[in-house]
Design a protein that fits this description.
single chain, alpha/beta, Purple Acid Phosphatase, chain A, domain 2, 13 strands, about 25% helix, globular, metal ion binding
């Protein structure tokens, strides 16, 4: 089984780039299962219901998210009816939505789990406590994929090492910058610190540069606008052995 995992898709430029390239990626890498982080899809923050359907119509199996998922109130109204749209499992229990889902595809039970880091991030519960409680459920699945939405690279790597051999594929999201450290950890977990962003190239993590620079210079509040122009899609492909269900390889992609 070949699994495609795509990092934060940012606004219209990201959506258009994803739509333009997804069929080619699926053909090039013989993709069987697709996971996309959609928390920046709608004007740079959150996921309107129309954009949830945008992904599903393009064959996405599971949509993960992060700290921006509830920026649009509409998500609060529909996320309980879309189990394949995840919120971070360690978010407040008072928020709606699921932190994981098990999807059956090609005779495999693929579990996708979403977590959010706690360093330099919005308030969230311990990722380790959330993960251990999840594992105590003893759910039946063949493959476990984790989208760890976090700022600090060391936090992502420490978590992945702690659960090396338990997690099949671990990918980081949130920084919008693809890292060049994809590899198999010693006990077999496929790992990359960050998948990167799908969105405008001439931007500051998806936004028009000028307002971001103004905020950095002055410290004054300002409104960020999604950038336009040429875009790129980044992510990773994880190859799974169909007999052992272990990760065989992980490669970065950029289109």
């Amino acid at each position: 089984m070949n699994i495609l995992m795509i990092g934060d898709v940012y606004a219209r430029s990201g959506r258009e780039c994803f739509e333009m390239n997804i069929a080619k990626i699926v053909a090039d890498h013989k993709i069987d299962f697709i996971v996309v982080n959609g928390e920046n899809t709608s004007h740079g923050k959150s996921l309107l219901k129309e954009h949830y359907h945008f992904y599903k119509n393009l064959g996405v199996d599971v949509i993960t998210s992060g700290n921006h998922i509830f920026k649009h109130k509409q998500v609060l109204e529909y996320i309980d009816q879309t189990p394949d749209l995840l919120k971070p499992l360690n978010m407040s229990a008072y928020t709606p939505g699921n932190g994981y889902v098990i999807v059956e595809k090609q005779n495999k039970r693929v579990c996708v789990l979403n977590l959010m880091g706690t360093t330099f991030m919005d308030k969230a519960n311990s990722t380790y406590e959330a993960m251990d409680q999840f594992l105590d459920l003893n759910l039946q699945y063949d493959i476990l994929l984790v989208d760890f939405h976090a700022e600090a690279s060391a936090e992502k790597l420490a978590f992945a090492w702690n659960y090396d051999g338990i997690i099949t594929g671990f990918v980081g999201t949130h920084t919008h910058v693809q890292t060049a450290d994809e590899r198999l950890l010693p006990k077999g977990t496929a790992y990359i610190t960050d998948l990167g962003m799908t969105g405008a190239i001439n931007s500051i993590i998806g936004a028009e540069p000028e307002p971001v620079i103004w905020k950095e210079k002055t410290g004054l509040p300002t409104r960020f606008e999604p950038a336009k122009g040429p875009s790129s899609l980044t992510g990773a492909v994880i190859k799974i052995d169909n007999v052992t269900n272990n990760a065989v390889s992980i490669i970065r992609i950029k289109y």
